[in-house]
């Protein structure tokens, strides 16, 4: 295993910092203790949250890698950092929904909890000024962000990820309600699953009690509860 030297800060987002390393093709992703919602409007410090999310995201990315899906994740370096392939992030957030919740429930006035017979895919344009608007494939292509061919490839990957993660979590008595993922392109222009997968970016409901095991309590003001919930997710991922 090669020795990793952390170099300059490349980027700082709401919940992560990205550092260059001695290998120009690899970066260090560092998880911060911040918890955000409403496009970052609500941003709170929560001690050790970054450590828990690093562990959760590591377990999920290891599992996805083991299924043969290409991701940016190489390995966990320490309690806050992962070594990842360097990518240019495609400025789109892809959401997959198995059950109605969150913005879909509000936008269309549909009761939360309705099971969708077909998974619904949505695209949000990552643009802080515009507050990450919902767009469709044609907008994304028109904006010059992506091609139809790349979108096709991404939809296949998301569908695959959704199928394997639904089963992965159900084995741990967790229902995968919806999730947001991001993709990046490496130096060869390969599309890699990037960013993180954690209770920050997914909705998880307990299979037996339907309790929300994600960031939703924070969205409604219960900040302290979130750490216990995230620990519960980590415990379940580690146990079986
Ligand atoms: N999500 C995310 N980052 C965002 C917006 C949404 O990770 O900036 C995730 C969210 O946790 C949920 C899914 O994407 O699992 C769908 O979110 P939704 O569109 O319902 O928006 P929300 O009301 O959760 O902000």
In brief:
With 240 residues, this protein is an alpha+beta fold.
Would you write up a description of this structure?
The protein has 240 residues and is of the alpha+beta class. It has 2 domains: 6-88, Phosphorylase Kinase, domain 1; 90-223, D-amino Acid Aminotransferase, Chain A, domain 1 (2-Layer Sandwich). The chain has helices spanning 49-66, 102-108, 137-142, 148-170, 216-219, 223-239; strands at 6-12, 16-21, 26-31, 34-37, 42-45, 73-76, 81-85, 88-89, 92-99, 115-125, 134-135, 174-185, 191-194, 202-206. The longest helix has 23 residues, at 148-170. Residues 39, 95, 101-104, 132, 178-180, 200-203, 215 line the site of uridine-5'-diphosphate.
Pick out its properties.
240 residues, Phosphorylase Kinase, domain 1, D-amino Acid Aminotransferase, Chain A, domain 1, 2 domains, binds uridine-5'-diphosphate
